[in-house]
Amino acid sequence: MRLDDTDAKILSLMQQDASLSLDQIAERVGASKTPVWNRIRKLKDAGVIKGQVAILDAEALGLEACFFVLIRTSEHDPDWARRFLATVRASPEVLEAHRLAGDIDYILKVQVKNARAYDRFYQSLISQVKIHNVTALLSMEELKATTALPIPDRAD
Q1: Could you tell me if residue 114 is inside a domain?
Q2: N or C: which terminus of the chain carries fewer CB neighbours within 10 A?
Q3: Which residue intervals define the domain HTH asnC-type in the entry (predicted)?
Q4: Is the pLDDT of residue 7 over 60?
């Protein structure tokens, strides 16, 4: 979908605060409510806006440990991949999972209460799928975290 400046402004506002009312968004982009509503609907229909959620504070919920889990596997058949994917998707501790190019096959971002909780996650993971090597890295400090994507320049 091709975005114009108004679409970009709407998306920027919604990424900053999705709880803004339609009136507030329209006022800030300098348009009336109905055209802004139509644009938001089109952005949703096109899949640009995938959903609207509340972003929770992990520490406030007692989930103080963030681990980045590097996984190497010697298994690459479709059945293993399906089981691994199902296991990862069923694990609420896994916030992100990526298949990588290079020496590491997968990386997971896992948010848990503490090291014991991570060990429970790890034991569950390896009991469900065969993994060649797992390295867990504890994040000591979060330096930047955002869900806001950079909106491409409309000139591109």
Answers
A1: yes
A2: C
A3: 3-64
A4: yes
